[in-house]
Each structure stands twice: as structure tokens, then as C-alpha cells.
Amino acid sequence: MHIIKIFLILLYPKAYSMDSIADFIKKKRKQAGLTQEEFAKKAGVALTVIRKIEQGKDNLSLSKVNQVLKMFGHVLTPTTEK
User: Please, what is the angle between helix 18-31 and helix 47-54, to 10°?
Assistant: First the structure.
């Protein structure tokens, strides 16, 4: 299982969905009036990273997803379940 999926399952065990992250990023990017290419450049990631995120792919590195999420003041972090 890929690391992002593991973190998301830990963070949101009942509501895990890469699609919800994809929808959030796509919506925010469009609200900012940016194309995928423009957004990738501003976020400092490759265009393919933005495309994969917006397509709901879960085979991405956590650091790249966080780099994109930071544009909107969010990050994914692991949690410790007790």
C-alpha cells in the first residue's frame, strides 16, 4: 500500500477518499483562476503531479501532495492512534 493511502486511512479511517482531495485541489485551483500548468509552476511541482492528484491517483509521494496542499494552507500528517 502506498504511503499516502496509509496516512489518509489513519487520518480519516471512515472517510478516506483520494477523490475528496482531488476535488478539493481542483476546486481551489479553479477558484484561483489557474490552469493545471500555471498551478504546477506556482506550487513548484511537475504538471504530472497536479494531473495525478486531480485524477484521484494514490501513487504519489506525501511530500509532493503536501507541497500542493500548502498552497491552500493545508498539509497531510500522520497521526498516532492509541
Answer: 120
Closest Cα partner for 5 from 65, 74, 59, 51? 59
Instruction: Provide the grid cell at 62.
Output: 506525501
Cα 29 to the center of its chain, rounded Å? 12
Length of the chain: 82
* pLDDT given for residue 48 in this prediction: 96
10-residue stretch averages of pLDDT, the chain, 82 residues long: 53 56 92 96 96 88 90 79 55
Single out the residue of 75, 76, 29 nearest to residue 54, CA to CA.
29
Instruction: Report the distance separating Cα 17 and Cα 26, nearest Å.
Output: 15
- Find out whether 36 and 47 touch, Cβ atoms under 8 Å: yes
